[in-house]
Amino acid sequence: MFRRTNNGQRKPFGRRFSPGNRPRTNKNNSQFSDVSKFINKAVALEEKPYEAKNSFGDFEIDQRLKNNIFKTAYKNPTPIQDESIPHILEGRDLVGIANTGTGKTAAFLVPLLNKVLKNRGESILIMAPTRELAIQINQELIKFAFGLKIFSVCVVGGAPMFRQIKDLKRSHNFVIGTPGRLKDLAKRKSLDLSRFQTVVLDEADRMLDMGFIEDMRFLLSYLPKNKQTLFFSATLSNDIKKIINEFLNEPVNVSVKTRDTASSIDQDVVYVNGKVKLEVLHDLLIQPNFDKVLIFGKTKHGVERLSNTLFERGFKVNSIHGDKSHGQRQRALQSFKGNQVNILVATDVAARGLDISGVSHVINYELPSTYEDYIHRIGRTGRAGNIGKALTFI
Q1: Which domains can be identified in the chain, with CATH numbers?
Q2: Residue 48: what pLDDT?
Q3: Which candidate, 109, 149, 235, 261, has a CA 20 to 30 Å from the CA of 372?
């Protein structure tokens, strides 16, 4: 990163952080101290190359499903896929802990699709914390299930409930949704929880953070006792451990977490040093390597204001936050995924679980509230082995 000095020379913004190059704490600047703590912690553990035990061809799954996997970008399983799929195929309960962006979705979809192929009467419930993640899981399922006549229903808040009730009356094996909407449908008796033999809780830590713990307990309590339960998360809190002890039956614990962020993410800070913050951001965004940029703000109004300002300056930009309708959020997300816009300004609603290919930079324009928020924000870049940059404004 570079900044312009008064005489026109180019000098680097800040310092690049790696395990051997830690930021110095500035006691007079609490913001810098916070980011210093985040970055130091994020790079604290050494990451060793993982050698897969299996290939997708080795797994005991239906050949038609294997063919669909081979048609996608998947070649060799990621660590969480490699370690989890055999246990799920055996019907075991499982707790999977892995960094964000490491393929947790396919780790449970592949063996569960195989489960349906073996028994067409199988019903599977998948819970996700946000509507965006639920929709993304459903899209991934459709890709893997191509030509297999396996159908799903996605039920999320912000979308018309009557349409979801109508969809639930059609033939399907998977129901994917957010806890609040699933609970509403169950209370309306439009969703029979007693028929699900398998349940998946994806990003379980985020569901707890968002206040869904009672909804999760409600849904789990009405599911059959004799079921397969899969927990996937990036962290394992005491609250999650309590739920695991209460609802899971002798689960296999799979943890392939090494460090909190992938080594493919280059973390750095951008010093404002009394300059106009927006101008510093503008100077970054016009640089040639900022191809696909996700900018995080703190408030809905601040995000929308920044998006409008960047648009007025000629940038191709869209925004996503809680004040937007379900349709508006999906259109904004699709325009970013499809490269109609190359900048997306977002609140932390976009920080968890979203798999957007090719994000070159994540910019923390406003500081995240917690270390976990920082990790999940910057985890939107450097995914699937690609190199990404994460910049935090100071």
Answers
A1: 2-46+260-393 (3.40.50.300), 63-255 (3.40.50.300)
A2: 56
A3: 109
pLDDT (0 to 100) of residue 152: 98
Looking at residue 12, its pLDDT comes to 40
| pLDDT for res 5 | 38
Residue 100 CA to residue 383 CA, distance in Å, equals: 9
Average pLDDT along the chain, 394 residues, taken 10 residues at a time: 41 39 41 60 54 86 95 85 96 89 90 98 95 92 96 93 96 97 96 97 86 92 95 84 90 80 81 91 94 94 96 95 84 91 89 75 91 82 82 92
Q: Up-side HSE of residue 116: CA atoms within 13 Å toward CB?
A: 24
Residue with tokens 């985020």, as numbered in its chain: 206
pTM over 0.85: no
Beta carbons of 112 and 59 less than 8 angstroms apart: no
Q: According to the model, what pLDDT value does residue 300 have? A: 92
